[in-house]
Design brief:
The complex is a heterodimer of chains A (707) and B (243). With 707 residues, chain A is of the alpha+beta class. Chain A is built from 29 helices and 12 strands. The C terminus of chain B is likely disordered. The chains are: A alpha+beta (707), B alpha/beta (243). Chains A and B meet through α1 and α26 of A and α1, α2 and α3 of B.
């Protein structure tokens, strides 16, 4: 057997020389294999990177590595909200500190963050409402006997602003009537506005301001549709622990919610997207799109639409202008536009009719000259935000929270998915969700006494209100809560807004109360499945109904995205390789048939069938390895290049998946080796049939005379 | 002299579609060691079929074919291959060299398949044979760089490199001009004499038959005529090796 190596050598020599001799076949087969390897390396690298960056996005924003919630929940937890804006229907866990103790007993756990995710409608400030409430305050002051010059001056200015608003509304209504040509629809509105716009109305206003204000509040304010219902998703949490645990979070404007204080933090994205003055937002968007995507307003349908809205929807701006501001804007706009037009609304329309040529100039003018006199955000940092939410038992609960600032997750500033979640303290969240704090209970008790509510024992209350025993540990609170909600619903009928009595709470309250789910951060994320098991085990031991899920599971469809993409990629790769198999197989069969004489000769002079088999398989393996390596290296080079320059996210959704505006794919050895293995397997499989044919070539073929 | 090939009443039938072709219809033949046997006959007479049976690339439909004492009908495919490798050398009408290997490698190929000799021993034997056939200088040439006669001499070297008991040549001169063919025949005869290798070759060329020590004529799959020492081979006039 001394010739073993040499035999291999000669097999290899024949194989390689044959490949060189039939270049077209080698190139076709090699090309396909190389392309396959290229695709596998590039695809899996991109996917791994998306997977990696997305997991960073999800883990680093709100999900943590693991989410824990109650096994009794009716639905599965979806922290990203999926397609619905509502939070998942989760069964609350009653005591956070207890759960934390149990979860922290698992060695791999580094932090536990209590949470509750929900969404609700929030009325953002209406310009008319605001102007009217300011006027009402001044009127009240006057009526209380304040005769100072300052108050008198404010009164006139504010009255003028409201009058201006009415004029704008009248003009708008006339336009609508003209357009619709249907007096019946707008008939009543027209008469109301005409009355409010008449000079008599305003002369009488001074005599009986309160009645007139009421008319304006009830009949005119509803006509101004600029008041927006904001739908806000929010996570109630321990703000301090949240900020510590999710280190990608940073405060953009304002400051964090102080410890022990109730408060609200807008996500910067939501704040910009929904709270900002629409005109300003549109200008921002157009600027961004023009700069990021290098598109022209005239060429992009989306931009064209935004530009049109920009020029036609100026009412929001006009309504903000009182007399002095109107005058100021008039002067500035006339000078800038070199126009003799006196109507500010028309001037603004003219200014905001933007084209690719004038956009930058107009944008700069808006922000430099007009913006300082405007309220750019409908809710300002430091304002109180009234949030009304439906509690679990169906009552409307409201909370007034101070807006401390805005925050963003690093790398996800532009991502709507990560940006849709705002933040509040867990204590306020519980109230909105239908659980009461001790403070609130006292307050409710006081209210109840005032309202002359009869004494209700806890047991009775439960029976009356629910007809069943409440399910949580804080039985009393739940019962009270139900009662309180009834009361509040009644009380809320009269006044629109109710302030929370206290703006702070005892930190212990936050620790010991109910919560819906908790994010768990781990030390070593490779041990995730084991840690999940450990947490559930620890829960069982402690008698807590804890369900632990990985971040992928907890983030619903978004978490499955990478898995889905992987399935798509592998399917594509599979199809390519099946096609490759067929083509390679055909090419090899043809090549084999061309080599019948040579194969017959080899068989005749004493080569065993396995020699022929080895030779053909070796040929395929050589082609596979050679071109597979070339393809894989090309793929690696492209990945390296992309890793250097980055793959820009085409839109905001992609930013979430890329965990930032660009994806920097990284190459892993596993992908390279994996692609070569796949390529080798494909080469060998595709050479089986031709090799089988070759093996069956009879040595007699050598004897046939040449034609 | 013992018979290297012993055929008793061998028949061979092929089916071509639905037609059964009787290529051999009962041939009996003994070939003694050291013979220089020519199988002659017109096309379709069964020359190649007979050669295939002797060369162990095919087995008889009936009758027995013994090569080097072994009944080929009793041997497995692998055993037949081994028998070819160790006992028989082949020379083909169209040379059938491996185009991608050089002359040296082509000659060495059967030794590599045998896997019994070391590289040094193989080299020695190959070079000795190349010298013998006058191709020492062409050892590193590829077959397509050689003339037809040179190629056939490579094939002869390849057939002899394993020192087989029997060399089969299927129309070895059919693709060569008459002068070259003559030279090839002279070479084969020379080797037959000095190496005592048995040569069996098929031909339908009368000049080639003239060199044979025995002649077997085939017609319609049957032996038509057997002549021994038809022409006394050693007395042939040209025994030089030059081509």
């Amino acid at each position: 057997m001394s010739g073993g190596l040499e035999t291999f050598e000669v097999v290899a020599q024949i194989a390689v020389r044959n490949l060189l001799a039939s270049k077209w076949k080698t190139l076709i087969v090699g090309g396909i294999i190389g392309f396959g390897a290229f695709l596998v390396v590039l695809g899996t690298s991109m996917l791994d990177s998306v997977d990696h960056s997305m997991s960073r996005s999800i883990i680093g924003s709100v999900a943590g590595n693991i989410q824990v919630y109650s096994t009794k929940s009716k639905e599965e937890l979806d922290v990203m909200g999926g397609f619905s804006m509502e939070g998942s229907q989760l069964d609350p866990l009653s005591n956070f500190s207890e759960v934390r103790k149990v979860v922290m007993s698992v060695p791999n756990v580094s932090a536990v963050v209590p949470m509750g995710i929900n969404g609700s409608l929030v009325m953002s400030g209406n310009t008319v409402d605001q102007a009217l409430s300011r006027l009402r305050e001044t009127v009240t002051k006057k009526q209380q006997g304040d005769t100072s010059a300052a108050v008198a001056e404010t009164y006139v200015a504010e009255k003028d602003h409201v009058r201006q608003i009415v004029t704008v509304l009248k003009g708008e209504l006339e336009n609508v009537t003209k357009l619709l040509d249907s007096k019946t629809i707008a008939g009543e509105e027209t008469s109301v506005v005409t009355r409010a716009a008449a000079p008599e109305f305003w002369t009488q206003f001074d005599q009986d301001p309160l009645d007139h204000l009421e008319f304006l509040e009830n009949r005119i304010a509803p006509l101004a549709t600029d008041a927006d219902m904001l739908f806000l998703r929010y996570v109630g949490t321990d703000p301090k622990v949240f900020a510590q645990s999710f280190d990608r979070m940073s405060i953009v404007d304002g400051k964090p919610i102080p410890e022990g204080e109730r408060g609200f933090l807008f996500s910067k994205y939501t704040y910009e997207d929904q709270v900002k003055l629409k005109t300003a937002r549109r200008l921002d968007r157009i600027k961004e799109e023009r700069e990021n995507r290098k598109v022209k307003i005239t060429e992009d349908a989306e931009l064209t639409r935004m530009a049109r809205e920009l020029s036609t929807q100026t009412k929001e701006l006009v309504l903000q202008l009182d007399a002095p501001k109107t005058k100021l804007f008039q002067g500035k706009l006339q000078a800038f536009l070199k126009s003799p037009e006196t109507d500010v609304g028309k001037l603004l329309e003219k200014l905001l009719t933007v084209t690719d040529q004038n956009f930058d100039e107009r944008y700069a003018f808006f922000y430099k000259e007009l913006a300082p006199s405007l309220e750019l955000y409908r809710v300002r940092i430091g304002d109180m935000l009234t949030i009304k939410a439906f509690t679990r038992s169906g009552y409307v609960q409201s909370a007034n929270l101070k807006v401390y600032g805005t925050f963003a997750f690093k790398g996800l500033e532009k991502s709507p998915q990560a940006g849709s979640l705002n933040l509040m303290d867990l204590v306020s969240f519980r109230e909105l969700y239908g659980y009461l704090t001790a403070d609130r209970e006292q307050e409710i008790a006081a209210l109840r006494a005032k309202a002359g509510a009869k004494e209700v024992t806890r047991e009775n209350a439960e029976a009356e209100l629910f007809g069943s025993v409440a399910e949580t540990g804080t039985t009393g609170t739940t019962a009270e809560a139900g009662l309180a909600e009834t009361e509040l619903a009644t009380l809320a009928g009269g006044s629109k807004r109710r302030l929370t009595a206290t703006s702070n709470y005892d930190p212990r309250q936050l620790e010991e109360g109910v919560f819906l789910n908790a994010a768990v951060l781990v030390k070593d994320d490779k041990k995730l499945p084991q840690t999940i098991k450990d947490i559930e085990e620890a829960g069982k031991k402690a008698g807590l109904p804890l369900k632990a899920v990985s971040w992928q599971q907890a983030s619903g469809i978004i978490g499955q995205f990478a898995v889905l993409m992987r399935v798509v990629l592998y399917t594509a790769v599979l199809i390519i390789f099946v096609v490759a198999l067929v083509i390679i197989n055909n090419a090899l069969v043809m090549a084999t048939l061309e080599r019948v004489r040579e194969l017959g000769t080899l068989r005749a002079i004493g080569a065993q069938r396995r020699f022929i088999l080895a030779m053909l398989v070796l040929e395929s393996v050589v082609v596979g390895l050679l071109f597979g390596t070339i393809g894989a290296l090309l793929g690696a080079a492209v990945v390296a290049a992309l890793g250097h320059s980055g793959v820009p996210a085409a839109n905001e959704v992609m930013m979430f998946f890329f965990s930032g505006p660009k994806l920097f794919p990284a190459l892993s050895g596993t992908n390279l080796v994996g692609s070569l293995v796949i390529v080798l397997v494909v080469s060998v499989i595709s050479s089986i049939y031709p090799a089988w044919i070759a093996m069956r070539v009879s040595p007699r073929e050598a004897m046939q005379a040449e034609e | 002299m013992t018979a290297i090939v012993s055929i008793q009443n061998a028949t061979k039938d092929y089916t071509l579609g639905k037609v059964v072709v009787h290529a051999l219809r009962g041939v009996s033949l003994d070939v003694a060691q050291g013979e220089f046997l020519s199988i002659a006959g017109p096309s379709g007479s069964g020359k190649t079929t007979l050669l295939n049976l002797i060369g162990c690339v095919d087995t008889a439909s009936a009758g027995t074919v013994r090569v080097a004492g072994q009944d080929t009908a009793q041997l497995s495919e692998r055993a037949l291959t081994r028998l070819r490798l160790h006992t028989i050398g082949f020379i083909f009408q169209s040379f059938n060299l491996v185009g991608v290997l050089d002359v040296f490698r082509n000659v060495e190929l059967p030794l590599l398949l045998q896997r019994t000799l070391s590289a040094a021993e193989r080299g020695k034997r190959v070079l000795a044979l190349l010298e013998r056939v006058g191709l020492t200088e062409h050892a590193r040439h590829r077959p397509n760089e050689l003339s037809g006669g040179q190629r056939q001499r490579v094939a002869i070297a390849r057939a002899l490199v394993t020192r087989p008991q029997l060399v089969l040549a299927d129309e070895p001169t059919a693709n060569l001009d008459s002068v070259t063919g003559q030279n090839i025949l002279d070479l084969m005869k020379e080797l037959n004499r000095t190496e005592k290798t048995t040569f069996i070759f098929s031909t339908h060329d009368a000049r080639v038959m003239a060199h044979a020590s025995s002649l077997v004529r085939l017609a319609d799959g049957k032996l038509a005529d057997t002549t021994t020492n038809h022409v006394t081979a050693p007395s042939s006039p040209s025994s030089s090796l030059g081509v």
